[in-house]
Amino acid sequence: MRIGWLGLGNMGLPMAGRLVDAGHEVLGYDVTAPARRAAASRGITVADSVADAVTGADAVFTMLPNGAVVREVLVEHSALVRAPARAVFIDCSTIDIADAHDLHTAAVSAGRRFLDAPVSGGVGGAAGGSLTFMVGGDAEVLATVRSLVQAMAGRIVHVGGPGAGQAAKIVNNMMLGINLAGLCEGAVLAERLGLDAATFQSLAAASSGDSWALRTWYPAPGVVQSAAVNRDFDGGFAADLLAKDLRLALQAGERTGTPLPHATAVAEAMHDLHERGHGGKDCTVLVRSVAGSW
């Protein structure tokens, strides 16, 4: 298939690369020159514009920072109408539920099909093709692109109608943020109690303290290969992006009358990281705040 891909950052690039590996023709576009160079080295045909990337596409994926950028690309840059009528649009960004509903409506108005399909699994999952896709929209539309998505996925879950994918992702990432805060506090406390980091991580991973974050992001050097602490917290899931996801969760909490005190505390911690100038670092840099080791 011919695929248009918009957004070639830490997640978008390896995801698009998986489609190249599966034999698809991928035309990608990103606003930054480094991302375009990296895409070219991965076998992606780099387009000169949004319009060029979606021309002739059977499917168009977006993996962008927020709802405003997705709207800008699909609506203001007219990607929805520049792609062929057969094209299915699959937004893998994490955006507000209301924005997802608006994009579904805009796609229908343009005579196009749209799915909100945010993902979980991080950069490692994107590179390894093991992401979980949380899909909102028409199940029949998903069926037409399931084999395509499967090249990037370990699991594809249809969670409901328009916006349901974003609802699931927002709740999931809120829980991740809360787990992350506990992980960072636990890692520092374990170290100060004299426990060997690798031994404790292995024990906790087989005990009630287990979590996905503990198994993949343990914030002590040399314990978990995939952890950003081994790269001076570069790459991975930026603190600013987690902060954005937590804001979306808190907004949903306000709309539904749901108290979210723990999510509020983690959102404040992410804001503090931003104020310190570390918002671009992986969110596990929170461990330095806990340890007071700036």
How is this fold's topology laid out?
Blueprint: E1 2-6, H1 12-21, E2 25-29, H2 33-41, E3 45-46, H3 50-54, E4 59-62, H4 67-76, H5 79-82, E5 88-91, H6 97-109, E6 113-116, E7 119-120, H7 122-128, E8 131-136, H8 139-150, E9 153-160, H9 164-192, H10 197-205, H11 212-217, H12 239-256, H13 261-275, H14 286-291
Parallel strand pairs: 1-2, 1-4, 2-3, 4-5, 5-6, 8-9
Antiparallel strand pairs: 7-8
Summarize the model shown.
This protein has 294 residues and is α/β, with parallel strands linked by helices. The protein has 14 helices and 9 strands.
Total DSSP E strands: 9
CATH-scheme architecture of the largest domain: 3-Layer(aba) Sandwich
CATH topology of the largest domain: Rossmann fold
In the predicted model, the low-confidence regions spanning at least 5 consecutive residues are: none
How would you describe this structure in keywords?
6-stranded parallel beta sheet, 3-stranded mixed beta sheet, N-(1-d-carboxylethyl)-l-norvaline Dehydrogenase, domain 2, 14 helices, alpha/beta, Rossmann fold
Can you tell me about this structure?
The mean pLDDT is 97. This protein folds into two domains: 2-161, NAD(P)-binding Rossmann-like Domain (Rossmann fold), CATH 3.40.50; 167-291, N-(1-d-carboxylethyl)-l-norvaline Dehydrogenase, domain 2 (Orthogonal Bundle), CATH 1.10.1040. The chain starts with a strand and ends with a helix. The protein has 294 residues and is an alpha/beta fold. The strands form two sheets. A six-stranded parallel β-sheet has the order 3-2-1-4-5-6, with helices on both faces. Strands 7-8-9 form a three-stranded mixed β-sheet. Strand 5, helix 6 (97-109) and strand 6 (113-116) form a beta-alpha-beta unit. The chain is built from 14 helices and nine strands.
